[in-house]
Amino acid sequence: MFFHPMDFLIIIAFVLAMWAQSRVQSNFHKGSKVIATSKMTGVEVARKILDYEGLTDVRIELSRRGALSDHYDPKAKVVRLSEPVYRGNSLASLAVAAHEVGHAIQHADHYAMLVLRHRLVPFANIGSQMAPFLLIGGFLLRWTNLIGVGIILFAAAVLFQLVTLPVEYDASRRAKNKLLELGMITNQEEKGVGKVLNAAALTYVASTLIAVLELIKYIIIFRERQN
């Protein structure tokens, strides 16, 4: 009932997302084997960059959610690093730690796209939770208006993902710049750091592509139903 020609593109995007995720794990694994010349750990790197930026009020905590659970919590002003990143002194550990600190710097600088993303959070949460039920209900009951509402809510979630892309790329840019500026990596090590950060960014691109294609599919079906 829900099959549509657009599904072929969505399947391709889904395969891309799976490949991107495998690249993240592969590049992180490879980067984890290369010890940084500075031999600094992720937590040391994070603290040094934060202090250099005057963000002494931002804390660093060990994340208990396992590998690759690293994130910055803007409400608590806490950078949470997974065990391999927190205690590791590899290029991968430094790259991830610096990336999360990049988000803290964005927060302090009131980076426009990050501010917009924060404002979209409640709408994105409602959209991601309610849209599937409204869309399925609309298709089953053949209620075009219900499908329309579902599309609007789903669009809010997609917009959040679109805004996330420049936020993530900017955080990675800040991360590489600070690592080089403060002498925590050499110019030769920049390439290895870039591979880790670029692979992570690719997962956001792939997941966003899937969401955009799904949104286009629903809009096409909605217009077909109206006609």
From TrEMBL:
Pfam families: Zn_peptidase_2 (PF04298). Signal peptide: none annotated. InterPro entries: Zn_peptidase_2. The chain crosses the membrane at residues 120-141, 146-167, 201-221. Keywords: Membrane, Transmembrane, Transmembrane helix. Coiled coil: none annotated. It comes from the Bacteria. This is Zinc metallopeptidase. The lineage of its organism: Bacteria, Bacillati, Bacillota, Bacilli, Bacillales.
